[in-house]
Every structure is written in C-alpha cells, then in structure tokens.
Batch of 2 targets.
Target 1
Amino acid sequence: MIKSVLPGDLVAQGNYRVYSNVIKADSEYYSMFVGKAEVEDSRVTVIRLSGPYIPRVGDQIIGMVTDIQPLAVTVDINSYVNGYIMANAFFKRRIDPSKQDINEKVRIGDLLNVRVSRIERGRDVLLSLGPKWKVSGDAIFYISPAKASYLLRSKSNIINRIRAMTGTGITMGANGIMVARGGKDSIKKLNDIIKIIESHNELYELEGALKEALK
Amino acid sequence: MGNLIVDGKRTDGRGPLDLRPLRIEVGTIKNAAGSSYIEHGKNKIYVAVYGPKDSHRFGTSLERAVIRCRYHMSPFSTEERKSPQPSRREIEISKVIRNALEPSLILDEFPKTLLDVFIEVLQSDGGSRSASITAASVALADAGIPMRDLVQAVAVGKVDGTLVVDLNDKEDKEGEVDLPVAFMLNENMITLLQMDGKLTVDEFKEAVKLAREAAVKIKEKQKEALGRKYFGMVDEK
C-alpha cells in the first residue's frame, strides 16, 4: 500500500520489523517527512520528497574534489557534511607523502565516483574509490537528492531508459549529482528531461511524464 | 476600550471564535532549501530555511543541528516606518519562535550543522509571531528536516470581557489579554505559551481550549499547502 504523507501523519499500526523515516510510538508509526509511505508485510518506509542528501554506508555517489592534503583529499558530496578519501586509496597501498605526490593522481575540481565507507557522527564521511573512480563528462546536473534516490530505485529502470532515449552516457550518484557525456543535441535532450524531473513533485506523475517524454 | 465588540461582532466583522482569512504557499523562494509565504489577516510573511550546513563555528553542537532564527520586520511593514535594525522585540520573538519550533524537529540527524530560519514580515497585523511559527513549520517540512509534527500557533485574547480567537492589531493593542499559544497536536504538546494581561483560571483553560480548536483548523491549511506542492491536489488522502 502506498500513500502520501506529511510530517506527523499516521503511516501504519501494528508491529513491523524494519522501518525508516518514521517515528515509532508504541505500535504506531508516524511520518517524519513529506513523502510517500510504503507499507508491506514487515516493513514501513517513507520515501522522502524533499531534503538534503543524508549519507548512508554503501551509497554510490559522485563528489567533487575541493581540497588536497598530503594524506587525504576532501570531497564535496552535495550534503551538509564533506567526504574525504585517504591518499592510500589512490595508490592502492600505503604511501610515503615525502616520496609520492597525490597531485599526480587527482586535482581540485575532479569529479569522483565513490562509495560511502564509514560514517562517524560529527565527522566527515570516509569514502572509498570504485574501479572506475574518475568521472568526466560534458555536463553536470544537480537533481534533488530525494528524486535521485527515487530514480535510482525505480523498478522500471528510468536511468537506463534516459540513457537510451537521449543517447548520452550517464553516471549518477545517490546524492543527486549526474554527469553526462554526449554530443550537443544529446545533452540538450537530457536537459529537457532534467527539467521535467525538476518540475514534478508528485513521483507517480513524474513517472508518467517521463514515460511520455521517453516514448 | 469598550467598543471592540459591538452586537457580537468584532472590529473586522468576525465573531469571537472566527479566524481571519488564512492562505499559505509552499516553495516560494527558489534558492532556499525550504520556504513558505503566509497571509494571515493583514500579515504578509515570507519564511526561508537554509541548511543544514556544515559549521565549525563556536556554538555548534557535536550532537545535533543548531537552529538560528531571525524574525525581522521590514521598515515598510508597519504604519510608521520601522528602523531596519533588529529591535529588542524582534530579538525576543526570534528566540521565542526558535523555542516553539525546536521540540517538533529531530535535529540529532545532523550533528555539527547549522539551520537558518529567516522570517521576513512584509506587512504586519496582530499575531505576526503566531503566523510566523505556522509558516516556519511548513517551510521546515518543505526543507525536508525530519520532524515529529507540524507546529501551529494562534493568539487568543480577552476583548471587552469576551474571549476571542486570533487577535487583529487593534485587539492586540487595546484588548485586555493577549495569549499566543503554539501546539504540536499529535503529541498533545504546547510549545509556546505567553500571556500579556490577566485571566482567571477558568478563563485561561477556556482560552487554551479555544486556541487548540483554532490550531486544528490552521493545521488543515498547512496540510493543504504542502499537499498542493507535493501531491498536486488539496487532499489526495
């Protein structure tokens, strides 16, 4: 069952094993966000429709290098907290900063495809590098993180269909950053699709509008 | 005094328990993380929420986000020009609004961060602090800040010996009592209660009851406003 909820709305009653974005009071579950509530056999969850990107361990995200220090690189991950990558990760072994220069591997402004490895309260988020960690493209788009999460988990694989329809190569992170590669026309088409995504707040309308545009 | 209620009607034609016209819009400021606009009677107020943002400033908490609230009346918002500098009253109201909103928010999700709530009164009438709280709560929901419930506020007062709901400017200034109250209805919690004037215990209980009934109506308006932006209709549920 899926329903629209606002903060403080009763989402479900009973005992559910897994729940997220809800407050549990005795056997009642109340929404913490404006969103879509999904209630299944043992799970209650609210998909947020707004808000900042909240990092979770395992998220695949795209970040931009903002600072380089001998032992670590700071990365802007489009959130209220920064990410960092240890210099060792770029060399895949322990390094001696007096001998190896991390600037050979990465520069300020580079876009990186990374994974959230560890979160400690009140500290920057530790990131790790995937196999193809350097991302380059012809355009970069910022999508609302709540919508990005919806697009990525969509069962109808919207991102793949956008790739096929626009003829662009797309790398997208759960934090809402999308890097696109393609010719001028392809990027223009993608830009139109992004406008549709940004102008629809109702997720199910969004799916319909995208289906229409992707025909 | 003595001519604020004539034949059961107040100066603006309302009955004692009627609310002034109320309109709320969500997402009015593009650059803000969340925003709202409220017209409550003659009050016209914008609220913009920025953040949460990383902060290493003195005063930030390792455990939770810290809210900074700024209530400001524009120089043209009153009948006589008001100095743009924050007055003692504005500083106090900023604090009062922050305290009224904080219990509804789950801020420990964002340690070492700041959350800015800017409230700009473009036109003021009685009850601007109540209207600001109502609008700020909607703007925070729009910003995606986790919360237990929406907060609604309304002022109840005593005018010509009668309890009235939602005071206008004249009643606020010339009435006997002004009692702004903010509620989190789900939790059955009062997050703001101030009183200027004197009421008997029974009158006080009745005033809070009237304020609660008004808050229920205000909450419906908040939900409609959020529903319009996010679900494209007044009441989808």
Target 2
Amino acid sequence: MIQIALDKKLKAANGEMRLHIDIEIGQGELITLYGNSGAGKTSILRMIAGLMQPDKGLIIVNQQTWLNSQKGICFKPQQRKIGFVFQDYALFQNMTVKENLVFALEKGQNKRIVNELISIIELEDLQDRKPENLSGGQKQRVALARALVRKPEILMLDEPLSAIDVKMRNTLQDYILKVHKEFNLTTILISHEIGEVIKMSDKIFIIEDGKIIKQGKPIEVFSNKQVSGKFQFSGEIIKIDKEDVIYIVTILIGVNIVKVVAVESEIQTISVGDKVIVASKAFNPLLQKIS
Amino acid sequence: MDWQPLILTFKLALITTLLLLIISTPLAYWLAYTKSRIKPIVETLVSMPLILPPTVLGFYLLIAFSPANDFGSFLSNWFGIKLIFSFEGLVIGSVIYSLPFMVHPIQSGFSNLTASISEASYVLGKSRSTTLFKVLLPNIKPSLLTGIVLAFAHTIGEFGVVLMIGGNIPGRTKVASIAIFDEVESLNYSNANWYSFILFAITFIILLTVFLINGGYLKRFWK
C-alpha cells in the first residue's frame, strides 16, 4: 500500500496556492489525478518522484518510508523506485531506442527485461532508431518501456496521451493497461480526458487548487446520478439538431460517431462540447459480427 | 622563413584549448544550473575578457606574476615557477583570455536542454556525474565543438596579452601574431605576408569545418 501526504505552498498563475493532499493507493491500483491545468497535479507527481520537495510530507511505499519531513527522511529521486513518463517523453536523443532502455538498467540487473519490454510494447522494428526519427506515439511507447526497466514500485504518467491523436491514443491506453496488469504495477496517471479516465482507472481524484475535491470510482464521480446501465460509453457531444418534436444528439465515442434521440428536457442540461455518458438500460443491445 | 612562431602558436592553442575544456565544462554546468546569488558576479568575471582590452589583462597578469610582487615571488620561491616571459605564463594568460569563448557555448548548450532529460536520468537511478557524461554532454556535442574551435581560433589570434606577459623571445614566447608584427617593424613584408596568409587560411578552414559539421552538411553529403 502507498500512503502519500503532501503539503506545499506553490506559486500558481493567480497568486499563491496551498497544495494539500492525503491519499492512499492500494497495491496494483491504477488511479487518475484529474483537474484543470495549474491545479497542482504535476507537482504531486514530482514530489512523489523526489524531483520537488514538499514543505511537509509523508510518503510510505510498501512499508518503506521515502519521505518523512518530521524525521528528516527524504530519499533522493535515485533511491525511489519509480517509473516516470514525462509529458515531453524526455528520451535521450544521443541513444537509440534500445540504448535508452539499456541505460535504465540497474547495476547487475539482468538484461533480459529490456528484450522482454521491447517485445511486450512491440518496439522490435524501432529498437535501432534514434528518438528524433520517431512519431509522437512511438516516442510515448519508448518512454513507457524505459520507465518500466527498473521494475518500479510506482509508475507515474504525466498526461501521457495529450499530444497524440485519438486513434493512436486508444492503442497506447491498451499498452498502458497491459503493462499495468502484466507487471502488477501501481500506477498514477494524470489525464484530462474523461473517456480515458473511465476506461483506465480504478479510482479518480479530482483536484482543484491543490486540494482533492472529489474521489471515487470514475463512473460514479462523473455521473451525478448513478446509472446502472447494461452498457455505457462516454463521449463528447459534437452536434445537436432539432427534428420536429425531438432532438438528434451526435456524440463522438472514441473514433465512432453515434446518434442518440433526446427530448427537450434533456437538451436543456447539455450543450455541444459536453462530455456525456451514453447508457442503455431497458433494451438489449444488438450484436452483429463485422469483417 | 622561420616556422617556429607558427609551431609555438599551435602548441599554445592546443594546450590552452585542452585546459579550457577541462575547466569550462564544470564551470558552464554550474553556471547553467545554479541558483546561487553570486552567479551574476561569476558570469561577469568570465565574460570580462570579451570587452577588456587584452593589454589591460596582460598588464595585470604581468604585475601579478612579477617576482617583485607577493604572488610572483611566492610562486618562484616555493615552486620555482616563473610565469613572466615564459611559455607557462602564456598558457595561463591565454586560458583566462579565451575563457568566455569556451564557457559561453557550453553554458548555452546546457541551458537549451530541457530539464526533464536530466530528471529522467535521476529517476532512472543515475547519479549526477553519470547523467553529465552519458546524457548531457553527448547531447550538446555541437556546443562543445563550437567552444573548442572558438577557443582554439581565439588563442591563435591573441596579441596584446602575449606581448605584455610573454614578450618576444624566439622559441619560447614569440608566437605568430607577434612574429608578424616583428617582421612588419623590420619591413620584411614578404615574411609577414606568409605568416598572415597561413593564419588566415588555417582559421578559415577550422571555422568552415565547424559550420559544416554543426549545420549537418557533412552528414547529408555522406548519405
């Protein structure tokens, strides 16, 4: 189990902000930090990684104290077993993909893990290329693989998919979920995408001005009423058309466009750009084989 | 024509550049990442030789190294080192004189790297020195090359400092730039022209090589 309590005064865009959080994460959980930019999400990751010092704090990871400001314990980033995927990937340009992974090996660590990761994350074709010749999504995969070489106790991903197009994003989400399960990782993700959060995380913490204002299962946190649907997806409204007495709402779910009928009372609470959940309860959805 | 001044010039430039590389890398690293309050003062001192007339620098070094003064007599009494009118003195003068030309490119190279690169290395459990030698320095090769070449070329071209502390002793302190001055003084224009032409040509080739390498022209050519 991982216990994290942090307290720090931060200089934010609009004056000073006090970051104060106290969370517990179970071994093997994937949690998401969600919130506006400037809410302090990245600072939290940096403090867990030891790249930033809190004013006061306590970090205990699987019974090992990484940080205890009262007792004056503060592990350096090098001593904390973490995997960190930076927003800009931070790949070493002077090394090939494989060299980036080999560099991450600890002294005396078996090299087998490098080849294992190359095959899990399907980097075989890219392993001799330099980062400058990779696309955003490929760089992302390399950064993910590199972060896993040390077999970290916590994997942290700072908005890993923000700069990647929707289609590639789905693939990468699957990679992250795959390694999360395969290596039995405890993962902290920063994300802005509600769909991504619902798809990936066990638990979500919504952060505003340095404080946690809501936490729980993503689907419960995001939908005010609890829906017990037979199937449900989240998407974004891209169009609302009036047709006679009803409305046709066009929703983008992943890469698919879905049209849903809505009545006037429903339309009053939603508008274009809103994130919504599409759920069906009373009827059994049809299944049809494609391809 | 006497080749000695030219050989001496290149020997001086080579040794100076080597020493500068060793001194400037940690200094530039410190300047690029420190949050210390004395940083502006150190930066100013490093940059002074850019503006200061070389004769001023040479004059103070001459005073400092003089056996008639405390520092000079300390050196000569305790270590038997005499820096005035000697090759060693020229090396020290040149190192100070060319310092900004080595420090500035390396410092800006470090500053242009994103912070996340070194952080990524620390998070992977690598020490500061491993990060410096395996990650940071290999990623600023163009800056290192620029620093090396500028320092080398600048040392070849120095005159004022050398004249002040080195004088004009053949084989010891008479470098090419001084030899040219000397030949002109004694109206040997053809000798002066030879020295000048060789310096001109070599400097041109060195700088051209840098621009070709840093501009990626050679890479494209080889492909």
